[in-house]
Amino acid sequence: xxxxxxxxxxxxxxxxxxxxxxxxxxxxxxxxxxxxxxxxxxxxxxxxxxxxxxxxxxxxxxxxxxxxxxxxxxxxxxxxxxxxxxxxxxxxxxxxxxxxxxxxxxxxxxxxxxxxxxxxxxxxxxxxxxxxxxxxxxxxxxxxxxxxxxxxxxxxxxxxxxxxxxxxxxxxxxxxxxxxxxxxxxxxxxxxxxxxxxxxxxxxxxxxxxxxxxxxxxxxxxxxxxxxxxxxxxxxxxxxxxxxxxxxxxxxxxxxxxxxxxxxxxxxxxxxxxxxxxxxxxx
Length: 283
Ligand SMILES: Cc1cc2nc3c(=O)[nH]c(=O)nc-3n(C[C@H](O)[C@H](O)[C@H](O)COP(=O)(O)OP(=O)(O)OC[C@H]3O[C@@H](n4cnc5c(N)ncnc54)[C@H](O)[C@@H]3O)c2cc1C
Ligand code: FES
What we know:
Layout: E1 4-5, E2 8-23, E3 26-32, E4 37-38, E5 45-50, E6 54-59, E7 62-64, E8 67-73, H1 77-83, E9 90-97, E10 108-114, H2 118-130, E11 137-143, H3 152-160, E12 165-170, E13 177-178, H4 181-191, E14 196-201, H5 204-214, E15 220-226, H6 251-254, E16 257-259, H7 260-263, E17 272-274, E18 280-282
Parallel strand pairs: 1-4, 10-11, 10-14, 11-12, 12-13, 14-15
Antiparallel strand pairs: 2-3, 2-9, 3-8, 5-6, 5-9, 7-8, 15-16, 17-18
């Protein structure tokens, strides 16, 4: 069968073939795609449709042999509806949408995330590990407490195998470094001499903090951040619900990944969000 790039604006029904509890109030699912597809890139997202319940954007944790992995954190009714789904049930997906991360070669890769932000970073880690010109990969993950750390076992194994350096942090000190991952990142930036790129995904105020921090270090040659906390309705550029000021960029098509040059131009970044009504609200 010829492989095709999934770029459909109508939901494609997929069977859930695996489900497990990833961490506190978060489940991972593997979805069997009904047609052979290729082309999902780290940082892109899908619109997940739970028939009769809700549709919302989620990141892509992986795509291999036509099996798509997603990780869903409980927020409200829509994510709870997905948590009730079991192996054998069907859900719909639209996508793959948005601009991906674009890692350059010959740099240190510094990935930092929290909450469901770690979902797209998982696929980025897998891509970087397969790259021929493999450079150092440092992963900084933070959570309130140990049972909220996503992909903990997998990341620890990669660390033990020497594939990545895992800097794990919890606010309460129940695992790893006690404190925020931003502090661990800054300590690392003070020591490293290698040109580095920061990739961040998580709460937008955290990313703004990282952005301001990264700008102080000339060895940080680029920052690529996922503005995936933004409210999205259509996911493919039609409704403008995800537009940011003053550029008018729609996060779903012009992002969700933006580099340093573009982030500099978004005055809303880390300051205002847009509600489902279209109104702006201070973060
Ligand atoms: C590009 C992108 C990628 C995302 N990736 C993931 C992921 O990999 N895993 C994950 O668990 N979550 C992800 N999210 C967030 C996820 O879409 C929301 O948590 C989900 O929509 C909440 O729905 P709910 O009905 O459970 O909660 P609700 O009670 O409806 O809302 C709770 C909060 O979720 C957010 N939210 C609600 N609807 C939307 C929407 N349509 N678009 C964006 N945010 C919304 C709002 O901040 C809201 O305050 C992503 C969001 C975006 C924009
Ligand atoms: S969600 Fe409709 S334009 Fe982005």
